[in-house]
Amino acid sequence: MLIGLDPVLTPELLSYLRAMGHGDEIVVADGSFPAAAVAKRLVRLDGVNLRRSLRAILAVLPLDESDPDPVLGMEVIGSPDERVPMHAEIAAAVTERGVNAELRLLERHAFYRRTEQAFAVVATGETGFYGNVILRKGTIARPVNMS
């Protein structure tokens, strides 16, 4: 255990988050997502919902606010303008983090293709539909005071 870190952040997940560079992407996916089939690196957080996973990850991962669309979700099949409860969960987690980024939605197959290029995929136990999000890592604007 470490002070100040959510225990959801497993050693493997922390290692991947730290190894990611500026512009690398990580996918946080629901329990129905074909994570093992598309992931270069897979972290399983079975039993942890999307909101809890995002809160833990966003507490340590800077999002890329210098380029557009650092937060990408999946469109509802056949209804690209529809927003479902999971989209609100994603947006709320990003807002809680204080990041100035809106959730943009990608068509399902475009989302899958983008996932194949991601640094890692986190498979959660989320049961809600469309609980999938791609997060692009940014940089830390100023040095963190470690004293």
Textual characterization of the structure:
The protein has one domain (about 20-30, about 45-135): RbsD-like fold (3-Layer(aba) Sandwich), CATH 3.40.1650. The chain has helices spanning about 10-20, 35-40, 50-60, 85-95, 110-115; strands spanning about 25-30, 40-45, 70-75, 105, 120-125, 135. The protein has a 6-stranded mixed beta sheet with strand order 2-5-1-6-3-4. The model has no long low-confidence stretch (mean pLDDT about 95). About 30% of the residues lie in helices and about 15% in strands. The radius of gyration is 14 Å and the shape is globular. It is an alpha/beta fold. It catalyses: alpha-L-fucose = beta-L-fucose; beta-D-ribopyranose = beta-D-ribofuranose. It comes from Paraburkholderia solitsugae. InterPro entries: RbsD-like_sf, RbsD/FucU_mutarotase, RbsD_FucU.
- In DSSP terms (H or I, runs of 4 or more residues), the helix count works out at 5
- How many angstroms does the end-to-end distance come to? 21 Å
- The total tally of domains equals 1
Q: For this structure, what is the CATH class?
A: Alpha Beta
**Largest sheet data:** 6 strands, mixed
Instruction: Calculate the mean pLDDT score and round it.
Output: 94
Look up the CATH topology.
RbsD-like fold
Specify Rg, calculated over alpha carbons: 14 Å
Per CATH, the superfamily is RbsD-like domain
Q: Based on DSSP secondary structure assignment, what is the total number of beta strands?
A: 6
Helix content: 25-40%
Strand content: 15-25%
Q: Low-confidence parts lasting 5 or more residues at pLDDT below 50?
A: none
Q: How do the strands line up in the largest sheet?
A: 2-5-1-6-3-4
Q: Structural class given helices, strands, pairing?
A: alpha/beta
The dominant shape is globular
Question: Per CATH, which architecture?
Answer: 3-Layer(aba) Sandwich
SSE order in H/E notation? HEHEHEHEHEE
Oligomer: single chain
Catalytic activity: alpha-L-fucose = beta-L-fucose; beta-D-ribopyranose = beta-D-ribofuranose
Pfam family, one: RbsD_FucU
Protein name: Ribose ABC transporter
Keywords: Isomerase
